[in-house]
Amino acid sequence: MNTIKIGLFGLGVVGQGIYRVIGRATNAHAEIKRICVRNIDKPRDLVIDPALLTDNADDILLDPEINLVVEVVDDAEASYRIVTGALRRGIPVVSGNKAMIARHLPELIEMQRRYDTALLYDASSCGSIPVIRNLEEYYDNDLLLEVKGILNGSSNYILSRVFDHDEDYADALRRAQKLGFAESDPSFDIEGYDSLFKLIIITVHALGVYVAPEQVFTYGISSISDFDIRYAREKRMKIKLVAQVVKVADDRFTMFVMPEFVSPSKYIYSVDDEYNGVVIRGECYDRQFMFGKGAGSLPTASSILSDVMARRHGYRYEYKKMDYLNLPSYTTDVMLKIYLRYPDEQFLSAIPFASVSEKFVSGTASYVMGEILLSDLIAHRELLRAPGVFVANIPRFFLNLDD
Amino acid sequence: MNTIKIGLFGLGVVGQGIYRVIGRATNAHAEIKRICVRNIDKPRDLVIDPALLTDNADDILLDPEINLVVEVVDDAEASYRIVTGALRRGIPVVSGNKAMIARHLPELIEMQRRYDTALLYDASSCGSIPVIRNLEEYYDNDLLLEVKGILNGSSNYILSRVFDHDEDYADALRRAQKLGFAESDPSFDIEGYDSLFKLIIITVHALGVYVAPEQVFTYGISSISDFDIRYAREKRMKIKLVAQVVKVADDRFTMFVMPEFVSPSKYIYSVDDEYNGVVIRGECYDRQFMFGKGAGSLPTASSILSDVMARRHGYRYEYKKMDYLNLPSYTTDVMLKIYLRYPDEQFLSAIPFASVSEKFVSGTASYVMGEILLSDLIAHRELLRAPGVFVANIPRFFLNLDD
User: Fold this and answer.
1) In what order do the strands lie in the sheet with A68-71?
2) Residue in B288, B302, B318 closest to A291 by CB
3) H-only helix segments in A208-296
4) Among candidates A149, A96, A105, A150, which has minimal Cα distance to A123?
5) Minimal Cα–Cα distance from B285 to chain A, Å?
6) Which has the least CB within 10 A, A22, B194, B237, B295?
7) Min distance B52 CA to chain A CA atoms (Å)
8) What is the ipTM of this complex?
9) pLDDT digits over A24-50, tens only?
10) Can B198 be counted among the known catalytic residues?
11) Minimal Cβ distance to B284: which of A141, A287, A301
């Protein structure tokens, strides 16, 4: 086992965290040899040897001493170029870019095989919680039924401020950005795409199946209103942004990201602030709950460090489940029960509910509660982004027995 | 990767669970080739091919086709003979016997190296929660500060029944045994030894240091009284049986198992019934909480299955941390704050408190709250088992900043 010599791409919030964490972890036998940044002269809080910095990727990719690329740039296209460039040269990579990974995972898996190298990305999903590694290594059996959780620390922080501290939505968002929880493009967090990308990655390691992001219903929290919040409170529930992949039969699974009414008896009810929480449900072990910091510089960096140290021992994801016989297939032919706040009756008539169990009309706001096919939600997803509309899932027995 | 052909030792609650789980997990490519039991003719609920059964260990140990021994016998001495017998022949072993492993771990590690084989025992600690694997593989860095949790499902079940359901202690114990949570010798669970053995194993994988069981202060729940329970309730706390290993300085750590007053803000407060919960605290990631079923046939069997599947990929614990430079050393020179219910003033005068902050005397019961060295608790551990005595830890800031 040699020293890991790291070429680091990116010196933003996470990159600076990595620089600090690697410095502290004396038994890691890892050192950062070069750091590639867009702008060398940008003022930084971090005191750093200027000789470490470069703006030329080749100073890392062509350095024969560097045996690991760690990539934490914010831009998904740059991330794709860096990661594929390194893999093509046989250099192992640790990446935290969920958007890039979720979009390109089949190709990235193929490249790892072709160039006999490794791409690790545990930090991409749930920050410091080792979800990917455990799904890949520990829940590697036929018993897995469901992975469900709060995967985005930023939107969860905002909902916590709004729900528990009566804060205004815009104030909460600003505060999240100030604390460094929110991505530079907040819509990424708030519209559910960050959770979606993590869910895509989780599903590959949970069930061995890749589903492209655009095939998955994704609905965020940006249109939540005081009315929705009051309604949830009256029912003694919280609204959380929940991502889930669920086996609905032996040979079929479904997945989606949307706000959900969560009752106090559920594990994820108490996942507040910037924390993430994931429930892994299986046939014999029932429910496992993993909980930890999902966002922020140092928690993410400590997860990157775990991947770096795994490389010292030659660890790579084997994607074993993808080779399983009888892989389940993705379906959207699933009936959900949802809460829909709607602007007017004309809007409502365009939404093909299978049945409506509750309807409330008032001058302030109107909502229905009813059953609808997930495929119909997908077909109408543009319409559901109209002003005055908010959708939330109501967990039901056939999908989530008693989670 | 070949099919794993298992020689199973033991067909009790866990052994039968393994038989069922292996049958269900079609992608595991594992089969049970032979099962060694003490009494072949014992009536069993399980319908099983009698040709699988043997009462001769050599039918497994000398079978060249068997490439994995799974050992779940109840008796620690038999477990030691089976595990060392297999390792000496170079056969990898999966074991769930925490008492045996905790007592013999240094020798078992040495044997794995000498005979170039593997012993996996994730099922030995916290049933279905992958604590050992994550400490070994994921929290493999210098950042770890503390592992603390409820490691024994049976005593936790009993405390939950007593605390939340006003049940009588003896009734709760009987119920736990009936449900198969309690070991055949209940004192193992209730006096804290089961938690202790798990803590010994966890400490090896958390900090790379082995501490012999008899060096660790271990105090159980068998002497808890209605007075203690009422007292905790008045303070809006629960009493839980908690095991913990904590770094108290860069170069020192301490560990102990004892009842603890737990306030509602702590993660482990809501770990009820037969569940286990473990908090892993580190420098950068703060707190990770893992929660799941710690006892019972199928949860334990699913954890055994994870170890079996890990063997398909040649996985073994590397015990990397044991080779670290500057390993921290175990200390009992640590001041704790405890609650002590005592029978009379003569007893109290024998206990060398450094200071007493609270004293209550009544005809029903008397207690003090005060500071005492852990080494003094150890020196007086026999005395503390006298009738009318109960000890519980009060977590303090210098040990557990704000856990």
Assistant:
1) A53-54, A30-36, A4-9, A68-71, A93-95, A119-120
2) B288
3) 226-234
4) A96
5) 4
6) B237
7) 24
8) 0.84
9) 888 888 999 999 999 999 888 888 899
10) yes
11) A301
